[in-house]
Amino acid sequence: MAFTSGRTASAMNYEPAFPSLLVTADRLEAQGAFAEAQRAVLDPDPDTVKDLQQLLRATGIGVVAHYYMAPEIQGALLACDWPHINISDSLVMADKAVQMAAAGVKGILVLGVDFMSENVRSLLDASGHRELPVWRAATSAISCSLAEAAESPAYLSYLTKAAKTPRSVHVIYVNTSLTTKAAAEARLPTITCTSANVVATVLQCFAQIPDGHVWFGPDTYMGRNVACLLETLVQRGDAAVRSVHPDFDAARLTRVLPRFHYFEAGNCIVHHMFGDQVASRVRRDYGDALITAHLEVPGAMFGLALEAQGLGRGVAGSTSDILRFVQARVGDALATNSPQRLRVVLGTEVGLVTCLVHQVQQQLAAQAGNDVSVEVIFPVASEAIVVSDDKQLPVIPGAATGEGCSLEGGCATCPYMKMNHIDAVLDVLTACSRQNYDYLRGFAAARLLASGDAEGSVQRALQPILAMRQFSKTHRLADALVQRALHQTLLE
C-alpha cells in the first residue's frame, strides 16, 4: 500500500485527479465543477434562511433530515435558530422525531426518501403521537434503489431460503421499507441494523445462538464488506477480534464465518459508483490523504479505507464514523500548533459534506490563529454533473459525455434525495402556517402498508426495529428473538 506519512499537500505540487473543496475557518475554495456546485449552496441565501426560520417558529414544526439531503437545504437548516432541527442518519431521524413530539412540536417535516417518512410516522404512532402530522417535501414518490431491491422476488426467495434453515436470524439494514420489514418478520426472526452497528449485531447473533445462521440484506456491498472486515480481524489475531466482541477469538470467529450469508443482488446506486477505477485513482494520487469509505461502497474502495484504517489514516464504517474520524484528526492537527492541510477522501454520498464542513469550520474557528485547513476530496470526475432546468433535480449526476459517472467511477450524489427541494420545504411550511390542509394532504407521510392487515403489518414491521433498540440498550438480543430462532418452525 502506497500510503505515506509525514507529508502534507501544502508541500506538494500536483494536479488533482478529483475535484475538491478546501475548508478553512472562514472560507471555502472549490477546485473543479463538481466541488463548485457543492460550494455554491453551502453558504445559504440569507433571505431563504430568514423565511425558513420565521415559518418554523410560526408553525412549531420540527424538521428531521438525512445526511445526504441537498446541501442547499442542509445549509439553510443549519443556519436557522430553531431547536427542533436534526440532520442525521435514517434511524436517528425517527428517534429525534419522537423526542421533538415529546417536546411539543406541532408536526414533523421529514426530508429524505419515502421509507424514512414511513419509519417516522410509524414510530410516532407506536410512541403515542398518532395525531401528530408528518409531512414530506414532495407529492410524488421518492424511491430508493436499495429499498426496491429488498421488495423484489429475489429477496423474498432469499428470505424463504433463510426460513428453511434451522437456527436462522435475519439482520436487515434499516434503510428498507416497512413492507419489507413486515414480510421478513413474518417469515423468520428479524432485527434491523444500521451501518454503525451491523458488525456488533451480526456477532451478537452468533454469540447467543449456537450453530446459528445469520442472513444479512439487502445491501450486497455492506454484506460483502462485513465479511471482509471479519476475515481481516481473524488475520490480525485474538486481541483484534476481542476488541470488537469479547466473546470471540480468532478461532471461534473462523468457525462462524461460513454461516454468515448476505444477499447478492442489492445496492445503493450512489455507493455502487465507488468502483475499481475510483479506488485505483485514490491509491495512485492520494497516498498521503485520509481515506474514508461507507460500508455500502464496493469492495475496492472499502478495502482501501480498511487498509488505511489499519495504518491510522482512514476509516471504513458509517456516516457517523466518518464524521467522528475527521473530527478527531482535525483535533490532532490543531493540537500540534503547526501549519497543516489535511486531505480527506470522502467515500460516500456527497450530501455528507454539509455536516462535515460545518463541523470542521466550528473546530477551526474555536482555535483562533491556527493555520490548519481541510481539503475534502470528492472521488468523482469534474465532468460528472449536468445542470438542468428541473427544479427538483437541478444538478444531475452523470455527464452528457458519459464520462466520470459509470459503474467504474463515482457520481457521489443521490438523485432520490435531491427530489427534496428548498422551495417545496417552504411551500409545505407556508401551507401549515395558513392551515391549508387540503393542499397538505398530498404531502402527508404514509401511515398504513398496502396490505389487507395493514395495522398488523405495521406491528410486525416495528418488531425488528424494537429488537434493535433493545440490543442497543442492553448489548444482548431479546430472549424472545433468540428462543424463536432456536425453536423456529421451518418453512416447508
Structure in a nutshell:
Helices cover 46% and strands 14% of the residues. With 492 residues, it is an alpha/beta fold.
Can you put this structure into words, describing what you see?
The protein is α/β, with parallel strands linked by helices. It has three domains: 181 residues, no CATH class; 122 residues, Rossmann fold, CATH 3.40.50.10800; 156 residues. Helix content is 46%, strand content 14%. The strands form four sheets. The protein has a six-stranded mixed β-sheet. A four-stranded parallel β-sheet has the order 4-3-5-6, with helices on both faces.
Q: Number of helical segments?
A: 20
Taking Cα atoms only, what radius of gyration do you get, to the nearest Å?
23 Å
- The computed structural class is alpha/beta
Spatial order of strands in the largest sheet: 2-1-14-13-11-12
Report the count of strand segments.
16
Question: What percent of the residues sit in helical stretches (DSSP H or I)?
Answer: 40-55%
Q: Which word captures the global form?
A: globular
